[in-house]
Amino acid sequence: MITAAEPLRIAVASGKGGTGKTTVAVSLALALGDRTPVELVDCDVEEPNAHLFLAPQITAHEPVEILVPEVDLGRCTFCGLCAAACRFGALAMVARKVLFHPELCHGCGLCALACPERAIREVPRTIGWIEEGDAQGIRFRRGVLNVGEPMATPIVRRLKERIDHERVTILDAPPGTGCPVIETLRGADFAVLVTEPTPFGLHDLRLAAEVTRILGIPTGVVISKDGIGTDTLERYCIEAGITVLLRIPMDRRIAAAYAHGIPLVAAFPEWNEAFRGLYDGILQAAPRAP
């Protein structure tokens, strides 16, 4: 629960990709930009794309590293305790060789603790970077995972460490319900789940809503491509007690603006008021301390 004076931290997520999650996150940030200090954080570090709509001026760039083991073969007795301790299979002992698979290492440091000969030290390995800047009055941050790297969570965690707590923060989450999504959602005051009225949309909304329920995050829904499909999605929201906060119609003009990298509220200024209404709905739904 947050106090009335604290700016909200809003996570915009979706069970599936392509629902319009980034459209909602960017439009919400732009609609609020002249009303309150706003920060947009693109946590989809495997495929960040919010910058395509905001064209930010980047002012800072910082590598993200994790600590990985380096074995001193002069001290190693090849006992295999380090490999046995690793829960992720990043270390293996073959004959009198230590094999290290860096893409499996989570940087937990347990192998170094397990080594009785103190033959393991931790060294940094770069897995990506974060950058920040400004765009149209909005503070902007994004993370980028290096090509071929499997672990996005450390970069998401580093992004969140840099959050400006004096601003309303909008977190553009990755699609799905995996570890990077959970890390993005953790600590959020409210989750906006963007979905579409299709069988796939409903299936993945159920999964995303279950994640926010387990994490104890108040949740609302934005229906994108409204007007297609059936009312099954609406019935689910009623049964689950999830409020539909905004509807974005299936409109070719909106799709065309998106394809040209134009935010919804820039292409159609009348939508600014709708997204301010979305924020007001979030304010009403988010629990706040007196």
From TrEMBL:
Keyword tags: Iron, Iron-sulfur, Metal-binding
Presence of the UniProt keyword Magnesium in the record: no
Keyword Iron applies: yes
Matches recorded under PANTHER family: 4FE-4S CLUSTER CONTAINING PARA FAMILY ATPASE PROTEIN (PTHR43063)
Chain ranges of the 4Fe-4S ferredoxin-type domain: 67-94, 96-125
Molecular function terms, GO-annotated: iron-sulfur cluster binding; metal ion binding
Protein name: MinD superfamily P-loop ATPase
Top-level taxon in the UniProt lineage: Bacteria
